[in-house]
Write a structure and sequence with these properties.
The protein is mainly β. The chain has one domain: Metal Binding Protein, Guanine Nucleotide Exchange Factor, Chain A. It is 11% helix and 36% strand. The strands form 2 sheets. The chain has a 7-stranded mixed β-sheet. It has a 3-stranded antiparallel β-sheet with strand order 1-2-5, with no helix packed on it. Strand 8 and strand 9 form a beta hairpin. The two termini are 28 Å apart.
């Protein structure tokens, strides 16, 4: 078991979670695609009792039996959890962990809606954010430094 932290973009909602391993998964179902505005959503399944909130998320009832936690200030998607037939577990969105690099996708879910062309992007041209001069100039002019 290890203790990890995470939260939303603006910092209003933070959490600490005790996790058993670094296994995660990619969900490709249309509900996750629509809720995240992306082709898939990386999630880490955790025990509800092992998550402590600093600033509770708001919730959207995304189906008759499930809800999604989010920050009402910045819009960050934080959770997916069943409200009926719960197993005592929930999903935290991998991108909200302070260090998401430790998690490894172990399986796919909702493959009926999978966009395979987005899974293997090896060989596509790559560009770092700090190589985009217009973006760098905007950050420096507005904030005086690049974001972390």
């Amino acid at each position: 078991m290890s203790i990890v932290t995470g939260g939303c973009m603006c910092g209003k909602v933070r959490y600490t979670a005790e996790i058993e391993n670094d296994d995660a998964y990619l969900c490709h179902c249309r509900m996750c695609q629509r809720s995240s505005g992306n082709v898939s959503l990386a999630m880490k399944n955790v025990r509800e009792e092992n998550v402590r909130w600093e600033g509770e998320p708001d919730y959207y009832q995304s189906s008759p039996f499930a809800r999604r936690g989010f920050c009402s200030s910045c819009g960050t998607s934080l959770t997916f959890e069943f409200t009926q037939g719960s197993s005592g577990k929930m999903d935290l969105i991998v991108g909200t962990f302070d260090d998401p690099s430790r998690y490894k996708a172990k399986h796919h879910f909702g493959v009926e809606s999978m966009h395979r062309a987005w899974l293997d992007t090896e060989g596509l041209p790559e560009m770092r954010s700090d190589e985009h001069q217009r973006l760098v100039d905007l950050w420096m002019k507005t904030v005086g430094k690049l974001p972390d």
